[in-house]
Amino acid sequence: DLFLTVVRRAMLLLAPKIGGMAVGELPESDFWGAADALMAASWAATLQDPQAFALLKAAASLHFDPSHSAPMALFFAEMRGWLEVILAHGQRLGEVRLDLPLSLQSRLLMAVGQAFDTWILEGMESGQVSEEDMTAVMDNYTQTFRRLIGSGVAGLRSAHPDQPPSEDSGPVKRASTVV
Questions:
Q1: In the list 19, 50, 119, 158, which could disulfide-bond 166, CB 3.0-4.6 Å?
Q2: Are the CB atoms for 137 and 120 separated by under 8 Å?
């Protein structure tokens, strides 16, 4: 699929500008701060590169429905796999919730990310999203993810996989279902 080839090439060209995309590059502390920095760097690099920006606009219009094409299904599966490795790292650090399967959490993040991307790109194109609104949204991008899948959600404060929950953290059930 030509489109995916172009998208993958653009991602490879942007990766050095963004950094921190491999689990080995993630810090052992401040998981969410590193995620914030990664998202900010991703957007900055994309906005500075007209080709990457055009590709992001085109990709934001795609759906995660694997029936669209086998190459797209493979691409989204690879993206979910990359996210799941990062989320598993976050779980080991006690920063990502344990009560939902990683496969569900990665899909949730991709869906929310697509909603953010689409809203921002459509708003930029139409002029309906001010620079102030876009800055506010970008400042809360990762915080939205954290509220959705962070270990502090719904009383999951100390859901570290190697430690039992603390007295004040409420019940924690570790998800074992893989989809």
A1: 158
A2: yes
CA–CA distance, 114 with 13 (Å, rounded to integer) = 21
- CB-CB contact of 121 with 46 (8 Å): no
What are the C-alpha distances in Å from 39 to residues 45, 157, 162? 10, 24, 28
Radius of gyration of the chain (CA): 17
Q: Reply yes or no on whether the pLDDT at 155 is more than 60.
A: no
3-state helix, strand, coil in the chain (%, to 5): 70, 0, 30
Q: CA torsion 31→34→36→39, rounded to 10°?
A: -120
Q: How far is CA 33 from CA 9, 57, 140, 168, in A?
A: 28, 26, 12, 25
Q: In the Cβ-directed half-sphere of 139, how many Cα atoms lie within 13 Å?
A: 6
Number of H-type helices and E-type strands within the chain:
6, 0
CB atoms near residue 16 (< 10 Å): 9
The model's pLDDT over 34-73, given as tens digits with 9 standing for 90+, comes to 888 888 887 777 777 777 777 767 766 665 566 667 777 7
Task: Please tell me the pTM assigned to this model.
Answer: 0.72
Report the mean per-residue pLDDT for the chain. Answer: 74
Tell me the C-alpha distance between 47 and 143, whole Å: 21
